[in-house]
Design a protein that fits this description.
Distance between the termini: 34 Å
Low-confidence stretches: none
Helix content: 25-40%
Mean pLDDT: 96
Radius of gyration: 19 Å
Strand content: 15-25%
Number of helices: 10
Shape: globular
Order of helices and strands: EHEEHEHEEHEEHEEHEHEHEHH
Strand order of the largest sheet: 3-2-1-4-5-7-11
């Protein structure tokens, strides 16, 4: 039986786990607290036991406090584990600000967060069977512009020419699964139509019959530091490599199909 061990059962990883269990896989995952049905990240004996039995290993844990906690604690054990497939969910933030240009996996790693850049490189070099998935903004059920509009948290920022890429959470799961039969390497998993955050909000408001938020200057919007930093980068993420080498096909090729599914 195929057996996946996932470090960090967050939003995207949990959706992947659901898909794999439906296919008859055994899936174990670590959490900070070892809640019911999971392994506590700090329970070293249990984690090492799971690593010895896993055919597939995935980390979705981002760097924290300047370092990758999974690599720091279990990197050597993962490097020596008998698994036949390993993967890491990284971020397209490693490309940094590209002035709105298209970027593929050959683009230089120059993101503003050195720890994220370092983790991306360290995972890519850890094993010969490693797949690194660089992800843009993730959305899906319970986590989309529709929820922000309903809760009055949506913004329209006056930044002409600003564009972002995004991907539906179920298309991330589809990309990971497609890679089981594909070659190791670094892959962007993004949809086909980057667009401005304003366009996304306008579409969402039209879907819900809600009024548009006021158009504001960036500094007037009183965004969180993380949200403010989001607007400091501008790029379009190309997905052709995953299509060619993995045979990945998007179920939600644009935000229109993806948000339609969320609303349904």
């Amino acid at each position: 039986m195929s057996h996946m061990l996932i470090f960090g059962m967050g939003y995207a990883a949990s959706r992947l786990a659901e898909r794999l269990r439906a296919r008859g896989w055994e899936v174990e995952g670590t959490t900070r607290d070892g809640r019911a049905g999971s392994i506590a990240f700090v329970d070293e004996a249990a984690v090492l036991s799971a690593l010895r039995g896993a055919t597939h290993i995935l980390s979705s844990v981002p760097p924290a406090q300047g370092a990758d906690p999974v690599l720091a604690r279990y990197g050597q054990a993962i490097a020596l584990a008998p698994a036949r497939w390993t993967g890491y969910l990284s971020s397209t933030g490693v490309y940094g600000d590209c002035g709105g240009a298209w970027v593929d996996e050959s683009a230089p790693v120059q993101g503003r967060r050195a720890d994220r850049n370092a983790a991306d490189a360290a995972w890519a070099a850890l094993r010969g069977d490693m797949r690194v998935f660089r992800l843009p903004g993730i959305y899906g059920p319970g986590r989309s512009i529709l929820e922000r509009i309903r809760e009055g948290r949506a913004h329209r920022i006056d930044l002409p020419g600003q564009v972002f890429s995004r991907v539906h959470v179920d298309d991330i799961a589809g990309g990971v699964i497609a890679s089981f039969a594909g070659p190791p390497g670094v892959y962007n998993l993004a949809d086909d139509e980057p667009c401005s955050q304003n366009r996304l909000g306008e579409w969402g408001c039209a879907m819900l019959g809600a009024p548009l938020p006021p158009l504001q200057a960036l500094d007037a919007a009183k965004l969180s530091p993380a949200a403010h930093a989001f607007y400091a980068e501008n790029r379009r993420v190309a997905n052709g490599k995953a299509r060619r080498l993995l045979g990945w096909r998007l179920h939600y090729p644009t935000y229109r199909e993806g948000l339609g599914a969320v609303l349904d």
